[in-house]
Specification:
Blueprint lengths: L2 H17 L9 H24 L1 E11 L6 E11 L2
Antiparallel strand pairs: 1-2
Helix pairs in contact: 1-2
């Protein structure tokens, strides 16, 4: 699910809540429309939070320099946006 899915759910919910004047016995279309709009907002917000989150990767390389046990350690950290 993504930003587009959230917008789609919101639009479909708005159409069901405000544009359809059909009466179905035992079903409240206005409530279903409002629920779809709420679900669309929740999906949209979760997608925005996931896009804005940062990801960090750390890689460590160890190399033996000489036979006495001296060791060279290199550490590299990469940070970037999650797309």
């Amino acid at each position: 699910m993504g930003i587009g899915t959230g917008i789609f759910l919101f639009v479909v919910g708005a159409v069901v809540a405000f544009a359809i004047s059909l009466t179905v016995p035992g079903v409240d279309l206005h409530l279903i429309g409002y629920l779809l709009m709420g679900a669309g907002v929740v999906v949209f917000l979760i997608s925005i939070v996931m896009v804005m989150r940062k990801r960090s990767t750390v890689s460590t390389t160890r190399t033996a320099v000489d036979p006495t046990g001296t060791e060279k350690t290199t550490s590299q950290e990469t940070r970037g946006d999650v797309i």
